[in-house]
Write a structure and sequence with these properties.
By secondary structure, the chain is of the alpha/beta class. It has a single domain, classed as Rossmann fold (3-Layer(aba) Sandwich). The chain has ten helices and five strands; from the N terminus they run E-H-E-H-H-H-H-E-H-H-E-H-H-E-H. Helix 2 packs antiparallel against helix 4 and helix 6 crosses helix 9. The longest helix has 21 residues. The radius of gyration is 17 Å and the shape is globular.
């Protein structure tokens, strides 16, 4: 099975993804893959470095007016995921854990003002996980866990609050038709309790699918 673990920074996502990888004896992928050419550009964008050569006027008149920053960022992320699409397809029968995938593109892209359905359609042809887990925390909780804000989203609480809302709305929408595939984990609890809830979700998924 392929399991995607999502959530904002500070939700415990990377910790839980590592624990689940060990628990399942799974192959692990983290997105964005910063070692690829597109990954390097993505991190430059997050750190405000990729368009540093442009003047402030050029940034306002060209990039901000047409929302090119958001569009370019999404294009880079889709390309970054597609780089591993073939490998993921080959691993469909194995245990795989993804630390973020296309839902993060939706949550952050919509916060940047892009259309939600457009963002979903962008990822239509990617290999799809069997189970999507959202580690749900409030912004206050994530801020306490990560007091140092590092990228452009983390430094903007208003923008990050939109990301939290977008994650919740996406899970609510997708769960209407696929409730067993889109599950929310209350990650405000302790690490051990969160791990237990994730393992329970895995067990429930396996039980349902062994019956079909």
């Amino acid at each position: 099975m392929i399991v995607c673990i999502e959530g904002i920074d500070g939700c415990g996502k990377s910790t839980q993804a590592a624990l689940l990888t060990k628990y399942l004896g799974a192959k692990f992928f983290k997105f964005p893959n910063k070692d690829s050419p597109t990954g390097k550009l993505i991190y430059e964008h997050l750190e405000h470095r990729w368009n540093a050569k442009f003047s402030e006027e050029e940034k306002r008149s060209v990039f901000e007016e047409h929302n090119l920053n958001a569009l370019i960022f999404q294009a880079l992320q889709v390309a970054n995921r597609m780089e591993l699409a073939v490998e993921l397809s080959k691993l469909k029968s194995k245990n795989v854990v993804l630390d973020r995938y296309w839902p993060s593109g939706y949550a952050y892209g919509k916060a940047d003002g892009l259309d939600g359905q457009y963002l979903i359609d962008l990822h239509e042809y990617l290999p799809q996980p069997d189970l999507f887990l959202l580690l749900d925390v409030d912004l206050k909780d994530s801020s306490e866990r990560r007091p140092e804000r590092r990228d452009r989203y983390e430094k903007n609480p208003g923008l990050l609050e939109k990301v939290v809302t977008n994650y919740r709305m996406l899970w609510q929408t997708m769960a209407q038709s696929q409730p067993s595939k889109w599950m929310v984990i209350d990650a405000r609890k302790s690490k051990e309790e969160t791990t237990s809830a994730i393992n329970q979700a895995i067990a429930e998924w396996r039980m349902r699918n062994s019956e079909t």
